[in-house]
């Protein structure tokens, strides 16, 4: 059996027993606990900006047909695909009809639901190699990482991307397995040639439309300009007031119509192709297999431009397993994914290829201007040392993780040499998904900040290899005992840190106190919610509050009568009753250094936020 075939050794549960899977019990417990604590998490520093972007993107769907305009933010937010934050914005509105929480908390609940979906997808991926026990152990080890659990409530970017990335891989691998099981040998040769011809034509036309978008606009500008100058052409014949209206108005109008027509053609032609394929034996199953995987990939890419990395792994698996038979499936997979990405990312509409390549460039060279605290030294995000990722990975995951990873890696290598079908596919996946990207980030010194949250999506294979260790213990009681011991540090420290789990550091560095003022702790300012709660309880009516950094986080939770001032305000108050400052960037030391500290938020003497009285 070839190594690649071990990727398909899924032990998928039968439909009638699916709710007996232990993962659903674990997810239900996670959901109940999560709902109980969601309102204890503060909003993170830049969440508000993402939902301003989401609102603009949603607005574009109603304004584009009439104005042909996309509402831009004017900054790099346009280069993030808005698919997920639009989904959260809509989901929070729906939840708000039945749950009386503030909007920020409703969004956090959607984040939690997304994380739970990602855990299910990770478990299902593990079941390709492991029985229920080891798969559940690997999943719970990932789920109980304080870093991940904390991010699951406050991150509109990193955990959602992790979830959709894992989901894209799971559905992509299942797509390949399903296509392999299908047979088109009974298709009548004439109908088979028609299928191939129509499919190739459809692909060429769709990609041609994407590539031709800038050329279409240039052609429209040429025709409108010529008609406005008095030349006779199609525009002068249909636009009677061409000489009394600015040419730009007609350029935008006709360009909008061309985009609308292209979108309509793409959707209708895709549905038509699905209908044609459904007439072939196994054709409907073929369509229903490819569509979910492709849509998941499209949305993943519309969250972050690194989404196609999942497609590369799926494509490699398909080509290895199916050879030339993979080409039609992959073509449909890529086209439907591109269409899903395009429809959920309005910034791409005027120039799909150009704007996507621009987004790739911007994300690769992200111009974050802040300073990165690492080992007590401040660095530019573009100048971090090569030890940055290895050190942070070593001190921000719980202590058992890397011991289990190393042991699992050794076992997987040993087994792959003796019997490639056993763990060879898992080993290859870990190499491509985790080890190669990690090496690339280290060697190229890719710009990173806020610790390593941007690369969380490469970590699932670490926990899958921990599952290899669990799977080698045959006695179920010993296996359960090892899993419990592995989970214990994450559970204990998660409870201790709540609701600041994402600021976790393990005992190798001395916990949060050992990391204090050496590494980033509450870099997103979520402790400002607790600071606002304190000031709400003790501040006199109409008190003036000076806030360092993200003052909007205090405004979100503060009493209506309190007057909030910060560096973002033009107006200053002659006196402040309270000063609130994060310890990030040592703002607490720089702001009103002589003022008396009256309240602190932190864990184990490591401070996140201080409240002072001048």
Verbal overview:
This protein has 614 residues and is mainly α. It has 23 helices and seven strands. The strands form two sheets. The chain has a five-stranded mixed sheet with strand order 4-3-5-7-6. A two-stranded antiparallel sheet has the order 1-2. Helix 2 crosses helix 10, helix 7 (158-181) packs parallel to helix 12 and helix 16 (399-418) packs across helix 17 (420-444). The longest helix is centred in the middle third of the chain and has 40 residues, at 189-228.
**Which oligomeric state applies?**
single chain
Strand line-up of the largest beta sheet: 4-3-5-7-6
Biggest sheet: strands, sense, closure? 5 strands, mixed
Mean pLDDT: 87
Q: What is the succession of H and E elements?
A: HHHHHHHHHHHHHHEEHHHHHHHEHEEHEE
Q: Could you list the spans in which at least 5 consecutive residues all have pLDDT below 50?
A: 1-5, 10-16
Number of helices: 23
Helix content: 55-70%
- β-strand percent reads 5-15%
Shape: globular
Could you tell me the number of beta strands?
Answer: 7
Q: Strand pairing plus helix content: what structural class? A: mainly alpha
- N-to-C CA distance: 73 Å
From the alpha carbons, calculate the radius of gyration and give it in angstroms: 27 Å
